Amino acid sequence: MSDLAGVVENLHPHEVKVLTALSSSASEGVTEEHLASIAHLEVAQVGAAIGRLQLKDFVRITHESSIPMASLTTFGKVYSVDSPIARILSALDQASQNQTSLTLKSFQETHGFDASEISGAIGDLKKDDVIRIKPAGVLELTGKTSATFESLRALISRLEAGSKPLEEFSSSERILIERFAQKRGKPNEPFRIDELITRRYALSETGKRVIPEIQKADSLGEEAAALTPEMLKDGSWRHVRFRKYAIGPAERLKRFGKKHPYREFLDLVKAKFVGMGFEEMRGPLVENEFWDMDALYMPQFHPARDIHDVYFVKEPTYSSAIPEPFLKQVKQAHETGWKTGSTGWGYRFDPIRARRLVLRSQGTAVSARTLAGKPRVPGKYFSIARCFRYDQVDATHAPDFYQIEGIVLGEDINFRTLLGLLNLFAREIAQAQESKFLPAYFPFTEPSVELHVRHPRLGWMELGGAGLFRPEVTHPLGVDIPVIAWGLGLDRMAMVALEIHDIRDLFSADLEMIRSKRVQY
């Protein structure tokens, strides 16, 4: 740096205080909170100054750690009286006093909870031997106390004062917090887990060279930002060093066009898959239920086909005829298992329902069409598929999203191949430092697995599901060799890669954010 004195003159007073404080701090670095106490500044002021000094290469990070923190959600604050468990217990107690009966169906209709929420609560209460289910689905209290509910109430009470490190809880309490923490498909949970990032800062080599110039400037007297009437009256302005101001016209800011950071991310994902030898698949956004669900061995009574999960097209309502022999073979696979070695779902398949039009709810529909189109063997295929599902919008959920869908087929393909690919995707595409697999269930794959990665702020986050296609999927579509498949949330991968903490920011109109975000590869 050629003119250190000139650089010091242009430093903000808060930056000078932070640099001075760092010069007298330990070499291993100090936290923002410690700096604030030394420099007599607010923590927010220190954070802003640190950010500017990092851009000037005056400050470096010496240590960074993350601690999982548990806290209450808005729903958690009323969980003791408004949760499915609490309402079921209250309703059963009232029914017992009134000598009336309460069924699972009548409770759901009265209180408006989702079936998945109620089934989970019923399962916990049955496991704790708090309720029994009598004939005709009538629920009845046993007189015992729910250990799960009491444990949840105790945890909620501990967290009412504020968030706490997850490590402060016992292993059984951590399991309960993680189980009842917000995640995809479960927004109404009492807990949330965030990552608390702690950083320590120290002077860089450039910053150390600036310190003597700061000390020299301090010896010239106190710096003032403005000339006041009092200074003029008492003459103190003669002994004060005034901060310099640029009074010339500001240089016009030049803005150059660039890709939207999410568009840039999607293009890089596509380039990576093409570079690995994958061929791209394409399919329509408006799809019929046959390719979106039937061909994937999802029964026509599956809850995912409900209006609360998928968007139905009002006009036209139905697609053209389904091509043969696929309709006939898929119909038989659903009803009797056909030639797959399965007994099927054992219901009467409705060919008219199969033509019902929906907005594509999963990228796997593109894979089904590809399998029916005589793909290469061995072959590797991928698709960046936009999908639509009814969902409550929050930091990790949106009603429309991109999936990175893919299949690999070949004689030697197996589950180990799939796990290796998923690890590669987590590392190379999501830029995740940590990933893990959890067992899962999907009607069209067996075995099945979910891929989870750790977001620096939101904690563990599900990216999507994967597995080995069942014979009930591949054989009716004319494929008789192993096929592995995956459907991962690209929006969530982008959140990790772009360091975005809210999925809605991927489509933000904030120009400053759009200009500043970069995909780090």
Beta-strand percentage range: 15-25%
| CATH level 1 name of the largest domain | Alpha Beta
Enumerate how many helices there are, as a single number.
21
Radius of gyration: 30 Å
Please identify, by name, the CATH architecture of the largest domain.
2-Layer Sandwich
CATH topology of the largest domain: BirA Bifunctional Protein, domain 2
Major sheet summary line: 7 strands, mixed
Can you tell me the residue ranges where pLDDT is under 50 for at least 5 consecutive residues? none
Query: How are the strands ordered across the major sheet?
Result: 9-12-13-17-16-15-14
What gross morphology would you assign? globular
Range of helix content: 25-40%
Kindly give the count of domains. Answer: 3
Structural class estimated from helices and strands: alpha+beta
Fourth-tier CATH superfamily name of the largest domain: Bira Bifunctional Protein, Domain 2
Termini, distance in Å?
Answer: 29 Å
| Assembly type | single chain
Q: How many E-type strands?
A: 17
Q: Could you describe the 3D structure shown?
A:
The chain has 521 residues and is of the alpha+beta class. It has three domains: 94 residues, Orthogonal Bundle (Arc Repressor Mutant, subunit A); 123 residues, Arc Repressor Mutant, subunit A (Orthogonal Bundle), CATH 1.10.10; 255 residues, Bira Bifunctional Protein, Domain 2 (BirA Bifunctional Protein, domain 2, 2-Layer Sandwich), CATH 3.30.930. It is 37% helix and 21% strand. The strands form five sheets. It has a seven-stranded mixed sheet with strand order 9-12-13-17-16-15-14, sandwiched between helices. Strands 5-1-6 form a three-stranded antiparallel sheet. Helix 2 crosses helix 3, helix 2 crosses helix 11 and helix 3 packs across helix 4. The two termini are 29 Å apart.
